[in-house]
Write a structure and sequence with these properties.
Blueprint (H helix, E strand, L loop, with lengths): L4 H6 L9 E4 L2 E4 L6 E6 L2 E2 L7 E2 L2 H10 L13
Antiparallel strand pairs: 1-2, 2-3, 3-4, 3-5
Length: about 80
């Protein structure tokens, strides 16, 4: 799956407006309150809130750590 870096820089979670992390075929919100992930199909991210999934807390924290994001850390620029 290839998401253009420029597109990833501007995309935000539709619910929380938080940054997103690319993880395989998912875009994952960095917001600890929502923990939403959005499926990428045919290189197109499905950002429809009703079709997203809410991750359990422990797998979400592990994913944030894998990508070097401090869960609940200070808000800053994405990327």
């Amino acid at each position: 799956m290839a998401i253009d870096a420029e597109l990833l820089d501007i995309l935000r979670c539709p619910e929380s407006r938080s940054c997103l992390i690319l993880d395989e075929e998912w875009l994952v919100s960095t917001d600890p309150a929502t923990r939403r992930r959005y499926k990428i199909e045919d290189d197109i991210p499905n950002m429809i809130l009703e079709e997203s999934e809410v991750m359990d807390e422990e797998p979400w924290i592990a994913l944030m750590r894998k990508h070097g994001v401090t869960p609940g850390g200070p808000e800053g620029s994405c990327g």
